[in-house]
């Protein structure tokens, strides 16, 4: 097991390096520069700024400057938010996204898995259709519709919850972002769980367990759940990364100040170091959680050994 | 035992019947299973209606999608209401433009974009996955590593970069988006190819001297079609949603053209003034996505070899 983890870590390094390289050159090959705004600066000032950020040098040496900084854990200064380094911005916004994300993840797993199992056990009954239609609603209702509807209902109509803001993560500020964030994941998890649960319930070892006369809840909890969770787990890895790195929609509508908005703004404004920073963060998390999924597979499924 | 004419006749009849039974192909089988799934068939019919409506609907409207009704503009919340007599069957938006014709026009774009994007994703994904799976060994591991790298990119990063490079031409954008959302497709196809490539008929083709490229194209890919079709139907709604998300960010189609995503994000802003501006395009979008999902599920039940 430890050799496996070690091997995966070693493999991750070249992958990450390629990721950084490709996104660096892609980002810089896009037309425009961080300082090409409507209010144009005098050419001398622009030249000075470009020189300060090494933007006047060939792109290859910019790349090595960036890599050098990265090795020291420095993601560089923001080109857009004056007086902020990317490290500070990420340190400020990532915890917010992560907190919303962790709650949403938890909610999505609990509701999604129970919906899926429930629907699978009553396959093709009206309860199955009702539960799955409810779950599918999360897929078909885009969250940029759900978010304003939530605000309209909970904040304006019922006046139960604040319409936006973060306030250090107090729970009233968390409810609506978590709803908006988790619905589509609930739907996906419920669908996958239902499918694999149906398949598992038809397999031979469940028939054996039933023939032994085990009570139904023990069959489900002790025998069916583990193999049925395998496809769910492989979905959860990438989903977890997506969910903790935040969503622009949530940030825009609820003004939570998470990382999603910084990323989109950064890409739109050619804030090179912002985009690179977030890309590296997401890339690292993706690789990390793919490895975690592989390890979890071995834990859940005794047939898999590394 | 005597061979009387009536006995031979009976045998012949029986023989004819067995021939008929043998004549059912995989696709006929699948079609029968599909047709017996009521939700999927109804979804397919609704989808056809929506598509026909999007294409033909504008012919029945008194307004053009760019037209501004200056009269309705003076008081949107009263004169802009959905009504038969004003010709605004679905009402007008806050700029006085007819929602009916704009929903239809947006539907054309959204559906086209969904289909086009999925098509590109599927062509690339199938070829890549089948090649990687069939060749195996070093080539396979390199190709899969490349996939892993692409997969760890933030999706929006690609979209935004492509948009700045290609400009904001919607079809180019969607060819580009299709070109980067083939990753899952490639992985699924590769897995399926791995189990196909040891079958006898592949071996036979190999022994006959068919080239590798032709084996992939003529023998592997046709046998993958089932799973590809299923995945394609599930990909189309994702593409439509993605388009609406990009439109929400203000990067999608440009005025005066529109799409469901644009209409919905405009409608969400005008929600308190003119509910119908959100309600119509949203219900079309939700209905379409629902139908595609049911259709995909139906096709999977019909084509998935596991359930047979």
Automatic annotation (TrEMBL), chain A:
Main subcellular localisation: membrane
Record's keyword terms, sorted: Cell membrane, Membrane, Transmembrane, Transmembrane helix, Transport
Membrane disposition: Multi-pass membrane protein
Transmembrane domains' residue ranges: 12-30, 100-121, 133-158, 170-187, 232-254, 274-300
Classification via NCBIfam families: PRK09471.1
Sequence similarity: Belongs to the binding-protein-dependent transport system permease family.
Name of protein: Oligopeptide ABC transporter permease OppB
UniProt gene name: oppB
Automatic annotation (TrEMBL), chain B:
Top-level taxonomic group: Bacteria
PROSITE patterns, per the entry: ABC_TM1
Gene name, Swiss-Prot/TrEMBL: oppC
Signal peptide: none
Entry-linked CDD domains: TM_PBP2
Domain (ABC transmembrane type-1): residue spans on this chain: 107-296
Membrane topology summary: Multi-pass membrane protein
Sequence intervals crossing the membrane: 39-60, 109-130, 142-163, 169-189, 224-253, 273-296
Record's keyword terms, sorted: Cell inner membrane, Cell membrane, Membrane, Peptide transport, Protein transport, Transmembrane, Transmembrane helix, Transport
Main location: membrane
UniProt cross-references to Pfam families, sorted A to Z: BPD_transp_1, OppC_N
Membership in a protein family: Belongs to the binding-protein-dependent transport system permease family. OppBC subfamily.
Location of this chain's protein in the cell: Cell inner membrane; Cell membrane
Protein name (record): Oligopeptide transport system permease protein OppC
